[in-house]
Amino acid sequence: MEISSSIVLRPVKGGSLPDGSYLVLVNGKILDTDASTSKNNVYKHIQILVRVIQFQIHGFRPVRLISNIMDIDITAHELVCHYHKRWDIEIGYDEIKTHQCATLRGQCPTFFRSKLADLVKQELYAMLIVYNHTRFLIWQAAQVYNQNPLETSFLDTTQWIIDAVEHMIVVSGDRRKVMFDYLLLLIAESPIDRPRRNRINPRVVKVKMSKFALKRVKHKSQERDLEKEIEIVPVRQSETEVESAT
């Protein structure tokens, strides 16, 4: 997660990592559910070791991230690149609500039929299991045909699965394996119709009512490869000499 620049994070002794990130002990308090009562809340103090990554993209302010991923085989640059993909979760929400759970005859695309809380949770878990398995099939097809799974159409894949299920459930053995391999081929041959581009939009407005400049023709979307422009900012030497814990 991104953390405010006003919070002081001093690395522990020997906490600087080769990729420019560093380790910090964060102090805080959480609710003690065992000691709390119906009238009074009791909190306990804890310390958590986190990994801090400072990075900057040209033209933007520096940013600090903290993570509990300590595996140094996953570099700071890789973590930053994945952080920039966090809003892809909105695409997942759309795929579930608009496509996977869509109903016929113009009804509400997503609804829970159950009236009890536990049964609503059961339906929700079922939706998520189906979505994850659909994405897993997309990944399998991408591995077999050496493609990027993010460039495969979820909508087309869902339709191929619906069409295949009624035939695959009545066969077994080698015949089912042949049909499954053919399903992967169909999925691999279903690219998204509008691939996402590496682009960035300038901070301008059409109507002058903020601090940003007015939008002009020159302010069209610009192609940009953020993965190449990300620069990891190592911790300063003076900061590494300060311990946050003994």
What is the topology?
Blueprint: E1 2-3, E2 11-16, E3 22-31, E4 43-56, E5 63-67, H1 76-83, H2 89-100, H3 117-144, H4 154-168, H5 173-188, E6 199-200, E7 204-205, E8 213-214, E9 222-223, H6 226-229, E10 231-232, H7 237-240
Parallel strand pairs: 7-8
Antiparallel strand pairs: 1-5, 2-3, 3-4, 4-5, 4-10, 6-9
Notes on the structure:
- With 246 residues, this protein is α+β, with helices and mostly antiparallel strands.
- It folds into two domains: 2-86 and 229-240, no CATH class; 88-188, no CATH class.
- It is built from seven helices and ten strands.
- Strands 1, 2, 3, 4, 5 and 10 form a six-stranded antiparallel sheet that branches.
- A hairpin with a 5-residue loop joins β2 and β3.
- It is extended.
- 10% of the residues are buried.
- Mean pLDDT is 83; it is low at 240-246.
